């Protein structure tokens, strides 16, 4: 058996004016809680270190830039403490942040930090950026200005093997992980890119509004409670369905709660098995850790039978997927 204890660290409300050190302390205590529960890997949400700033229009560049991490995220002042704690605890972390590169580009990024080597093993930049470039004219609308603030990711979907989590001599070898960010989870293409590389666990941090009728393209007269329940349903639907069709585990961690007492983000962080069933799920919409023992060998039946891609896929009929 190749069993790994994996945690999702859900993060509740983070307000626009929250001081960075205050949020960082919350993240570190979630990491410590996960470690005390025996977690070997912990997933944190998308843009973990700040409020979900793409909902706001910023005319002041300095304020916008304050939400981005500049330089090496593992050593920068606002972020390094969580990497240091991960190293000290010997727990790997997968964590999302807004990345400003040295050449002035901006991405919605996450990294897989390998505690034992104290290094980033893999980096992913969000490819499916939702929302708009321009804010809605309605001043009360919930915006999602990711197309304004980020460039689409340029690193592709790369699965990677992670040392030190399982016995390296076990059949099937070191675990194969993959990362995506929030909106990517709604796209079958993203999952299949990782699935074709044999991914065994997909990590996905997210910020999903509980009520954003303009962004969803629905009438603002709809019942917000029903719409919110549907947002959570769709989140779980894609995590469960795509875990099943790619015969992999998936872990999702929400940034959730009511930011600034006004902006609602759903919870629903989950760990899903390769059969598509939820094996752990948060019960609150606040800071909360869930853990599950994931036996990666449970991916094998799906990978070898129903979803044996080599035997059953018919690529000659799929060219439309990349031609338009
Ligand atoms: N952060 C992010 O990507 N949020 C999007 C909002 C789109 S609402 C359908 C998401 O997919 O959850």
UniProtKB/TrEMBL annotation:
Annotated GO MF terms: amino-acid racemase activity; hydrolase activity
Domain CN hydrolase: 4-296
UniProt key word RNA-binding: no
UniProt keyword list: Hydrolase
The UniProt record lists the keyword Acyltransferase: no
Transmembrane residue ranges: none
Entry similarity comment: Belongs to the HyuE racemase family.
Stated name of the protein: Carbon-nitrogen hydrolase
Residues of the full protein shown: 2 to 325 of 611
């Amino acid at each position: 058996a190749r069993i790994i204890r994996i945690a999702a660290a859900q993060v509740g409300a983070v307000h626009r004016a929250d001081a960075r050190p205050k949020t960082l302390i919350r993240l570190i205590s979630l990491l410590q809680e996960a470690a005390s529960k025996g977690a070997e890997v912990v997933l944190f949400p998308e843009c973990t270190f700040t409020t979900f700033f793409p909902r706001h229009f910023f005319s002041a560049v300095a304020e916008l830039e304050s939400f981005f991490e500049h330089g090496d995220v593992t050593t920068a002042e606002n972020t390094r403490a969580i990497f240091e704690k991960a190293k000290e605890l010997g727990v790997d972390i997968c964590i999302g942040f807004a990345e400003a590169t040295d050449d002035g580009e901006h991405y919605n990024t996450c990294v897989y930090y390998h505690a034992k080597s104290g290094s980033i093993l893999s980096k992913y930049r969000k490819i499916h950026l939702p929302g708009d470039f321009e804010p809605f004219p309605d001043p009360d609308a919930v915006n999602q200005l990711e197309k304004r603030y980020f460039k689409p990711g340029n690193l592709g979907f790369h699965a990677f093997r992670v040392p030190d989590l399982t016995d390296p001599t076990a059949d099937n070898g070191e675990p194969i992980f993959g990362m995506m960010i929030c909106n990517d989870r709604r796209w079958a293409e993203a999952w299949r890119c990782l699935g074709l590389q044999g991914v065994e666990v997909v990590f996905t941090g997210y910020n999903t509004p509980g009520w954003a009728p303009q962004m969803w393209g629905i009438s603002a007269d709809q019942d917000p409670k029903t719409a919110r329940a549907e947002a959570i349903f769709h989140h779980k639907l894609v995590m469960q369905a795509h875990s099943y069709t790619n015969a992999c585990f998936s872990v999702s961690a929400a940034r959730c709660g009511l930011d600034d007492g006004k902006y609602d983000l759903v919870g629903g962080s989950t760990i899903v098995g390769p059969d598509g069933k939820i094996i752990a799920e948060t019960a609150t919409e606040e800071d909360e850790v869930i853990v599950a023992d994931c036996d990666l060998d449970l991916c094998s039946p799906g990978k070898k039978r129903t979803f044996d891609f080599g035997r059953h896929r018919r690529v000659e009929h799929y060219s439309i997927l990349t031609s338009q």
